[in-house]
Structure formats: C-alpha cells, structure tokens
Sequence to fold (133 residues):
Amino acid sequence: MMTLNSAATLRLLLALDAAVSGATGIAMIAAADFLEPLFNVPALVMRSAGAMLLPFAAMVFFFSRPAQLTPSRAWAVVALNVAWVVASILVLVTGWIQPTTLGLAFVLFQAVVVAGLAELQFTGLRRSGAAAG
Fold:
C-alpha cells in the first residue's frame, strides 16, 4: 500500500504530468500552422497529437486527486507515457514524418520529458510497494 508521503509525491508527479501535457496539447493545436514550416511536421499531425493530449491531461489530473489515486491508475499513466515515447520514436524511425532539425529536436525533447515523467512515476510506484493492481 502507498504511504502518505509516496502518495503525495505521486499525486504531485501526476499533476505535473497533467499540466505539461495540457499545455503542450494546447500549444500544439494553437501553433500548428506556425510550426509546420519550422518543424516540417504537418499541421494536421501536430493538431491531432495535441488533441490527444487534452483528454489525457484531464484524466491524469483527475487521477492525481487524493480520492482518485490508485496504483492501477498510476500504472496506466506510466504505460500511456511509455506508449507516447515509443510512438514519438516510431514516427521518426519509420520516416512517417521527416522533420527539420528543429522539428526533430522538438519530437525528441518532448519524448525525453515524457520518458522522465514516466520514470519518476514508475520509481515512485515501485518505492511505494504498489503492485501491478
């Protein structure tokens, strides 16, 4: 079972994840047309990715609330973050997009940030003794 301290830390990490995901999603949607020529990432792809982040951010924020935090919900967030990182890498290595150097830096930067959050969440869950459920 999670201790109060580990649960509080995990709630903070989830709230941070929600804030970063929500802000990134809004920015990707709002700036897609501006960023398309800079990143060589189609505006539709940018908007679609941003639109996927908004419900994710809302879900993670909901999970971060004290009465809503469960190990299984936190593990689900970790798994979705890992999936995002994998998808980010796959769009690059498969050639699905051919970003500029700036676009490549953006894709890699956001993947590293998400991977970092997933690692911190994973570590927090492991240290709390939370099982897979």
